[in-house]
Fold:
Amino acid sequence: QSVLTQPPSVSGAPGQRVTVSCTGSSSNIGAPYDVHWYQQLPGTAPKLLLYGNNNRPSGVPDRFSGSKSGTSASLAISGLRAEDEADYYCQSYDTTLSASVFGGGTKLTVL
Amino acid sequence: VQLQESGPGLVKPSQTLSLICTVSGGSFNIGLYHWTWIRQPAGKGLEWIGHIYASGSTNYNSSLKSRVTMSLDTSKQQFSLKVTSVTAADTAVYYCAGTRDCSSTTCYTSSWSDSWGQGILVTVSS
Structure:
């Protein structure tokens, strides 16, 4: 059971906007610790998508954005494309566990 | 920075899993990164195993702490993972990663991994 809760799946049609939530608690996101997001395409290693809640590494399109409020964070993907179909993970730090923690992951399906 | 995992793909139950991550790209000794192991059982999510810092200090997942050891070999630009007394539950793809908590301009309150190895499948089976 992950301390960061993500929906198991989300879906959207090409061109649409989808969001992926990451819900934590006062010992992690709400502490507040910053949140990071990863994209994992099938059969590949995870790739950093956003760091520090809403910062894109070089090469990540601006269709990807993030936000954080209270004990939750969200990843938004606009202008959905077929190649966005992947698993998405949030990550933060938990002070009770004294450990880096991941969400359980969300599978994005592009309809 | 580029990372590459190596080690046995098959380990017998109760034995020790040993993996090495080789780092290239010149960032190993700069201190910008600390080094991380993460694993992913088939069809499941990511599990953070632990970090090792340039100083050699470590931070491990409490659920694995009694069985995990990480170490550095700076002369070879490598870091390693050992997991003792393995069971089938330790079967997973193991990733090594370069992890940081500061960008070029800002430091953050938690760290992220911006460089990952391709992963190595380790199966625990007799």
